[in-house]
């Protein structure tokens, strides 16, 4: 992606790969025609100057809750994202987290590396089985469906789900997936609850103390969606009091900051936002950005326009 941008445009790269500050973004809005932010660059309304030079924001990532979309619209700035290409890798990671937290893989590796493993014994680090259990999915979009396929056909899991709109098609019938009317019903039925809903104001803290209270004590929460969909304080309380069995988290509310209490808990697996982190996916994301940019510059409607 970067090679193409340099060859085709007068591109200035963020070679340090560090999120731009608010002031740096404000300068970019005044000095450039196009800005290509990542999901770690925060673009609240405050960074949009009254008469920005920039006309296009090509987001490197599928989530865009870090961008004030209303402010972009008011400024006449087009916004695109990179959907589809990271579906499989994010679904793979959701399954990875399920296996890690249920089988206590993170705990086991830490114990071995620390030289604390005393050898095999019948009661050592006994976890929970994944195969044949019930997976509850919140948000049956592309990634939710990909996760459901892996769970059903790879591990023989039963699938229940919540989605705002009614979902009824041949793929879901082949999965034997049951749609419930409320998130609470899904969470009460599931051994694993996997979140695949978008972030932003509409879904902020959609998983709160009340909904966590509906989960079974032996159930696990998995989040590869966005950190702000979970009330982290409520989750910490539920985990600390062992009201749920554990959690597998790839995203956090204030990344890269992660609450110390979460980091201290043995029944939590924590990953540093690795959902799309494969060579193939990151390359495909970059090419999506280029595709959308070229469409914009040629006066065509970009395929992945969100604003």
Automatic annotation (TrEMBL):
<protein>
    <submittedName>
        <fullName>Lactate dehydrogenase-like 2-hydroxyacid dehydrogenase</fullName>
    </submittedName>
</protein>
<dbReference type="InterPro" id="IPR050223">
    <property type="entry name" value="D-isomer_2-hydroxyacid_DH"/>
</dbReference>
<dbReference type="Pfam" id="PF02826">
    <property type="entry name" value="2-Hacid_dh_C"/>
</dbReference>
<comment type="similarity">
    <text>Belongs to the D-isomer specific 2-hydroxyacid dehydrogenase family.</text>
</comment>
<keyword id="KW-0560">Oxidoreductase</keyword>
<feature type="domain" description="D-isomer specific 2-hydroxyacid dehydrogenase catalytic">
    <location>
        <begin position="6"/>
        <end position="306"/>
    </location>
</feature>
<dbReference type="Pfam" id="PF00389">
    <property type="entry name" value="2-Hacid_dh"/>
</dbReference>
<dbReference type="InterPro" id="IPR006140">
    <property type="entry name" value="D-isomer_DH_NAD-bd"/>
</dbReference>
<dbReference type="InterPro" id="IPR029752">
    <property type="entry name" value="D-isomer_DH_CS1"/>
</dbReference>
<feature type="domain" description="D-isomer specific 2-hydroxyacid dehydrogenase NAD-binding">
    <location>
        <begin position="95"/>
        <end position="275"/>
    </location>
</feature>
<dbReference type="InterPro" id="IPR036291">
    <property type="entry name" value="NAD(P)-bd_dom_sf"/>
</dbReference>
<dbReference type="InterPro" id="IPR006139">
    <property type="entry name" value="D-isomer_2_OHA_DH_cat_dom"/>
</dbReference>
């Amino acid at each position: 992606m970067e090679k193409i941008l340099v060859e085709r445009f007068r591109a200035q790269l963020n070679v340090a790969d560090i999120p731009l500050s608010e002031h740096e973004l404000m300068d970019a809005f005044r000095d450039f025609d196009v800005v290509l932010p990542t999901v770690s660059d925060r673009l609240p309304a405050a960074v949009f100057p009254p008469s920005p030079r920039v006309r296009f924001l090509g987001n490197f990532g599928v989530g865009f809750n870090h961008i004030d979309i209303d402010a972009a619209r008011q400024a006449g700035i087009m916004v695109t994202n990179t959907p589809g290409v990271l579906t499989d890798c994010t679904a793979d990671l959701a399954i990875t987290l399920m296996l890690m937290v249920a089988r206590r893989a993170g705990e086991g590796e830490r114990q071995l590396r620390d030289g604390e493993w005393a050898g095999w014994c019948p009661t050592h680090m006994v976890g929970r089985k994944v195969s044949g259990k019930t997976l509850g999915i919140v948000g049956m979009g592309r990634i939710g469906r990909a996760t459901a396929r892996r769970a059903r056909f790879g591990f023989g899991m039963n699938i229940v789900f919540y989605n705002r709109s009614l979902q009824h098609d041949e793929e879901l019938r082949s999965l034997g997936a049951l749609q419930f009317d409320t998130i609470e019903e899904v969470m009460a039925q599931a051994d694993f609850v996997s979140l695949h809903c978008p972030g932003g104001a509409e879904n902020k803290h959609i998983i709160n103390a009340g909904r966590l209270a509906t989960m079974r004590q032996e159930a696990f929460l998995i989040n590869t969606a966005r950190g702000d969909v979970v009330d982290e304080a409520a989750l910490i309380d539920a985990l600390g009091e062992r009201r749920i069995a554990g959690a597998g988290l790839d995203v956090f509310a204030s990344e890269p900051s992660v609450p110390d209490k979460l980091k201290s808990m043995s029944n939590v697996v924590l990953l540093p936002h690795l959902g799309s982190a494969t060579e193939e996916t990151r390359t495909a994301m970059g090419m999506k950005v280029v595709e959308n940019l070229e469409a914009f510059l040629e006066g065509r409607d970009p395929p992945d326009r969100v604003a």
